[in-house]
Amino acid sequence: MKRSIVCLIAFASLSIMGCGEDFLDPVRNTNVITSEDFAEFSEQNPELIEGTLDGIASFMIQDQGILAGQHYDLGQKGVDIWLDMLTGDLSLATSSYGWYNGTANLVATVDFTATENRIIWDYYYKVVNLSNSVIASAGGNDANPEGAEVRRILGQAKASRAYAYFYLTQIFQREYDPAQPILPYYDGDVANAAKVPASEIYALIVSDLTDAIDLLDGYTRELKNQIDKPIAQGLLAYTYAAMGNYADAKIQADAVINSGYPLTTAGQLAFPGAGSGFNDVNTASWMWGFDLTEDLGHQLIDWWGQMDYFTYSYAWAGDSKSIDNGLYAQIPANDIRKTQFGTANAPLMPINKFFDPGRAAGGQYIITTDLIFMRVEEFYLLSAEAAAKTGNEGAAKATMIELLSNRLGSSEANAYISPLSGSALTNAIYLQTRIELWGEGKAYFALKRNQKSVTRGSNHVFRAGETFLANSDEMSFQIPQNEIDNNPSISEQN
């Protein structure tokens, strides 16, 4: 199938370019399309591969993109909900429809036949596949094109492939072990259907993102769903941190901080304030997100439908998602972020963090509130964690005080952070990561790289009060049955 797509691109390129002298050369075998041909075609006609690249961004927000009829198949944001549930910080507080029972009850993660495993696996490998097609069409893995537009396309495709593989490593390996075989490896040149050691997957991720940072240097995007250099740097920071390379993680996190994105303002942190910093892609602190418009027709089956009390869908109708009440109790009363969560008819639901501006219960039908994939605060937290773990506690404290000043107040932030050192400091950074990034799908990375335990509060429908280690079976997903059935190089046992 991939060969057919590649040949179609080449044929279309030849049709548009016409019969130049190069293609009339009798010495040249014109039946063989080389990587040099692809590079030449894409340099002259980058729009031929633009559609596939745009398709990756659209696929990230596509509902039921893997399995029809599955109302939790929501692209990247659907995965975010599952990961937040595994951390225990996101509670399935009521369950009338049952979509998240398997994850909330921690049975989907220990059953390779569960649908959740297939959706996650197929979603990310489809992104890998699409990225490989774009990379091949832009000249291949080793290409170094001269044209700015093709450099941008190749950089974005490599970053997209790295994004997919990074999530796969986090979701399907219990803890970082470079020697452990974990995933099949496909880069467009090499196809190894057997699981290869984690070191090989991580090497590809690092290489892709390093290349993407270089290729995207100087590129200014038009839309926030397009990957640019700071996003690639952010993904590389996460990758290094997952590998335990905190020195390089801090370099990349600091590069993101210095790229010009401001912190979310105090007024944007929670309603009423100045509005929400979590429903509009134009929020200045957002690095990566998707602008949902009426024309896209997102309705019932959407991340907002699963999370927002003010959207006509599951969260309002009986599948409420709340902050774990044990985590909520650790947020001080003077912290603005405590007001992100409701009481009364929406107990501990994020009604003042994620909300349709109309604020009518079940009111938003056609969804136009936007989807967030990455914001700059993630890298303040990661920079601080990396600094603390490499012995630079002064830098860690300074970064945390800067972040927390408009959440707690400057003097309060200073009084909280300044006396801390050692494990007390790293524990505080981990706690603040959970509070700050609640509902955004990123606390799971911190759980995994820090190998923390999860103790659920009392407001979970399932397994309230139980404790789980980060490397336990329940905290990672399984290679799905359809992969095992169709891939003879992988068995359930290996």
Account of the protein in words:
This protein has helices at residues 2-17, 35-44, 47-59, 76-87, 101-104, 115-137, 148-172, 198-215, 229-242, 246-257, 303-307, 314-317, 325-329, 377-389, 393-408, 410-417, 422-436, 443-450, 481-486, and strands at residues 90-92, 181-186, 191-197, 286-290, 321-323, 371-375, 453-455, 467-469. The chain is mainly alpha-helical and 494 residues long. It has a domain at 48-268 and 373-486: Serine Threonine Protein Phosphatase 5, Tetratricopeptide repeat (Alpha Horseshoe), CATH 1.25.40. The longest helix is centred in the N-terminal third of the chain and has 25 residues, at 148-172. It is globular and about 55 Å long. The chain starts with a helix and ends in an 8-residue tail after the last helix. The model is unreliable at 1-35 (pLDDT under 50). Residues 345-494 form the RagB/SusD domain. Keywords: Cell outer membrane, Membrane, Signal. Residues 108-220 form the SusD-like N-terminal domain. This is SusD family protein. Belongs to the SusD family.
Helix segment count? 19
**If you consult CATH, what is the topology of the domain at 48-268 and 373-486?**
Serine Threonine Protein Phosphatase 5, Tetratricopeptide repeat
Strand order of the largest sheet: 1-5
**What is the 3D shape?**
globular
Which parts are unreliable, with pLDDT below 50 for 5 consecutive residues or more? 1-35
Top CATH class of the domain at 48-268 and 373-486: Mainly Alpha
Signal peptide: 1-18
Keywords: Cell outer membrane, Membrane, Signal
Protein name: SusD family protein
InterPro entries: SusD-like_N, SusD_RagB_dom, TPR-like_helical_dom_sf
